[in-house]
Design goal:
Elements lengths: L1 E3 L13 H14 L10 E3 L2 E13 L5 H15 L18 E2 H9 L4 E11 L2 E2 L3 E2 L5 E12 L3
Length: 152
């Protein structure tokens, strides 16, 4: 049996400490059926899938380009945080995919943004299309973010 622990943390890729994994292992071992030997219980941290975003945003006022670029990067980092991000802001479930439409909604909601001229999801800095499929044993985390803001 394998138990994956994602500790509450603001870290970009939260990992449980050795002590936390040991506490959970000992807790489970004491309560496991006799048929489950202590050696058969593994307590591990999550494996993350970094999802990158490349985009070009058009501001309503070109003089706000710098602040919009910073706000866009912060919004994407928040949206792609494994514990506090996601479409509903309550974290990413294991295996939950990422959709360009959700990312576009985040970016176009930033004050001063007129629209997203270009938007691309990426895996390993390679275009991934309109969605990223996440394996069932992984969680989303922010990968490289490349946001450019320029006038139309």
């Amino acid at each position: 049996m394998t138990v994956i622990i994602v500790p509450q943390s603001q870290d970009a890729q939260p990992q449980p400490s050795f002590e936390l994994r040991q506490i959970v292992h000992d807790f489970l071992t004491l309560r496991a059926p006799a048929t489950v030997a202590a050696l058969n219980i593994a307590v591990i941290g999550p494996t993350y899938l970094p999802v990158g975003v490349a985009g070009i945003l058009v501001p309503k006022d070109v003089s706000t380009a710098g602040s919009i670029a910073q706000a866009a990067t912060a919004a994407l980092q928040a949206f792609l945080h494994p514990l506090t991000g996601g479409p509903d802001g309550d974290g990413w479930a294991f295996g939950r995919g990422v959709f360009a439409s959700d990312v576009a909604a985040i970016l176009e909601a930033i004050p001063g943004v007129d629209h997203a001229e270009f938007l691309e999801l990426q895996l390993n800095s390679t275009p991934a299309g309109d969605s990223v499929t996440v394996p069932p044993d992984r969680m989303v985390v922010a990968g490289p973010l490349f946001i450019e803001v320029r006038g139309s």
